[in-house]
Amino acid sequence: MSITDPYQAYRQNQVQTLSQEKLVLMLYDGALRFCRQGLAAMEKKDYAGANGSLCRAQDILSELMVNLNRDVGEIADNLYKLYDFMYRHLVQANVKKSAVMVQEVMDLLQQLRDTWEEATRIYHSHDYRTRVGMNRQG
Q1: In terms of Cα–Cα distance, which of 7, 60, 18, 64 is closest to 37?
Q2: How many domains would you assign to the chain?
Q3: Which residue from 16, 22, 102, 133 has the fewest beta carbons nearer than 10 Å?
Q4: What is the CATH number of the domain that holds 68?
C-alpha cells in the first residue's frame, strides 16, 4: 500500500522515527487532547462528538497497555493497572456523560505525562556510560 499524500507520508515517517520516550509523550498528549475535546462536546450537549473523542482517548490508553513491557516488574504492572483504571473510568464517563469523571482521568494523565517528561529530561541530561565507566575506575 503506497501513500500518495505527501503530508500523510511525512506524518507517518515522523511517527516511525520518534524515540520511544517521545512516542509515549505524544500518546499522553493525544489522550489529553481527546479528553478535552470530549469535555467540550459534552458542554455543548454534542453526545456523539463526546463519544467519538472519548473513544479515541480510550484507544490511546489501550495502545499504552498493549505496548507496555510487563517484564520489567512491579512498576509496569502498576502502570498497567492505572491505564486500565483510566480506560474503564472513561467508558463509564462516556456512558454517564460525566464531565467530573473525564476530568479525573485527565488529572491522572497530566500527572503521568509530566512525570514521564521529567524522567526523560533527566535521563537525557546524564551520560550514564560515563558514570558507569567512572564507577569501574574509581
Answers
A1: 60
A2: 1
A3: 16
A4: 1.20.120.340
